[in-house]
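Run log, item B.
One chain of 311 residues. Sequence copied directly from the ordering sheet:
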Amino acid sequence: MIKNESKEMYLKILDKLNFYDLIFTANAVRKKYRGDKVELCAIVNAKSGKCSEDCSFCAQSSRYKTDSPVYPLVDKDELLKKAIEAKKHKVKRFSIVISGKKPSKQELKQIGETIEHLTKKEINTCASLGFLNYDELCYLRDCGLQRVHCNIESSEKIFPEICTTHSFSSKVQTLEQAKNAGLSICSGGVFGLGENWSDRVDMAYFLKNLNVDSVPINFLIPIKGTPMEHRTPLSPIDALKIIALFRLILPQKDIRICGGRQLLGEFSSWIFIAGANALMTGNYLTTQGRHYIDDLKFIENHGLEVDFVVS
């Protein structure tokens, strides 16, 4: 960790430091605080489409015409099947994700029963369910839920340009309520939404002050039919610099590379050198990811070890 750090200092580092020096510095920080182990997580799109919100990058919003699938909440036996498959491939944490602002009472009950089912099979559970209140979070915790995911998406400054149907503060409140309920929290965002480097530094500091446990980093892959469909994707170099920035500002946290990894192309093997120590494997919400076996080989080929301990 850099002493006497400040937001302005990191902006100067990004401006002045040679790209390779930045990456190798981040790699040294990763090795110091996280070692040479890589943690895998996987998600299931447990309820898809017809979302009332207007997040400008998301294919699941009912406001946009996309090819995103639409279906109701998947039953617990099917979710268990997917979770067991992930666990067989050394996935440490399995997350249930649904579209929409929050689940109905019946959906919440069904999700709670599913989490109980997964917990009995010694599967570490996470959930991304929108804006739950304290009592709802405590119910899921008592069912066995360990972690709550809720991305802040970008900096507070530009959030209104990304979404108008809910606020940045509503996301933060959900994360704070999850912490109050004794749950681990996972929060990051999507990069390439029009933010600048100052926004990225602000976002990293916000997550640092919130003391999140895991930071998912997604890179925008523009989806036809959304307001972001014509946005130019980030360059691989900028994507790697973002990973390095977050590692430097959050040295002891899990920096998890998720959606949009294909944007890196031939630079994909640099993600660990840039500071990442965790991956989302398998498919994403509305786009294909990488097969578990491919990512296990990917990690092994880099001389790293999968962090797989059921807690």
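Observations after the first pass:
- The two ends are 28 Å apart (CA to CA).
- The longest strand covers residues 37-47.
Flagged for discussion on Thursday.
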